[in-house]
């Protein structure tokens, strides 16, 4: 954070980042790989979720919402790649900078809240199937929940939409985009504190705790009552979700809070570490299709049909349906015979 550009003096850590060509290339290459995997995996996922998966259960609606945010990130990443390769020189103006920054952080926090919603849905469907039978997420509530997520995230990130996030660094002859922030972006230290608290604690830490509780409860329930296949699949799903939180989201939010406090009160910087963590936060968009695979039985079947994986014969498929039907969180559950005949007709 700084004042106006005429009186600004770049700190050594941030200057080193801007002048380090190798770091810029590495980050750009990671973004290129993420873009390719993101658009391919989530494009296929969106097609399967919208056109090949039925009925549209609450979990499927949440997955569609998550895929939408991932595709938006995939569409925005090429602009970030160009910015990096041009030496952190932004040429597209303040409005486009605000849009790009908003897409980055909206993807992160909408993903976090959506994964929390999927975890809650599975918790209610598996751990509390009778007690909450009448209060489960239904389609309309799921849609409203997605809209509420967007509303909460956009409300917290409102300063990013109303502030010029570009900054001219005269000593390097570049104009940055969200790499150097004006201290008067927010009116006071208390406003900065509220902004950071909302991002780190409300949009990250609280959903992380809720999601962890839900998946631990699901695993404990299945460990007591379920067959081996269902239990292993639930454990894999929980591992992937926790991996996304710990690798993609936790470092960025922790470093964001640490870097901001250091800049506001001690004039220190850990910006290079934060920049790298922001890069790795984008990897969540590549891991989300794996969440769909383990979370949705219908998604698994349709994906296997598309890529011609004949891993289950007819009898195994029918047995698997019988094992999973009691604990499935996707309702209403179709009979094994009905699902099997539908798969034969669409193959």
TrEMBL record:
Subcellular location: Cell membrane
InterPro entries, alphabetized: GPCR_Rhodpsn (IPR000276), GPCR_Rhodpsn_7TM (IPR017452)
GO biological process, alphabetically ordered: phospholipase C-activating G protein-coupled receptor signaling pathway; positive regulation of Rho protein signal transduction
GO molecular function, one term: G protein-coupled receptor activity
Membrane topology: Multi-pass membrane protein
Keywords linked to the UniProt accession: Cell membrane, G-protein coupled receptor, Glycoprotein, Membrane, Receptor, Transducer, Transmembrane, Transmembrane helix
GO cellular component assignments: plasma membrane
Superkingdom assignment: Eukaryota
TM stretches of this protein: 25-50, 62-82, 102-120, 141-161, 189-216, 237-266, 272-295
PROSITE patterns for this protein: G_PROTEIN_RECEP_F1_1 (PS00237), G_PROTEIN_RECEP_F1_2 (PS50262)
Domain G-protein coupled receptors family 1 profile, residue spans: 41-292
Protein family (similarity comment): Belongs to the G-protein coupled receptor 1 family.
UniProt-recorded name of the protein: G-protein coupled receptors family 1 profile domain-containing protein
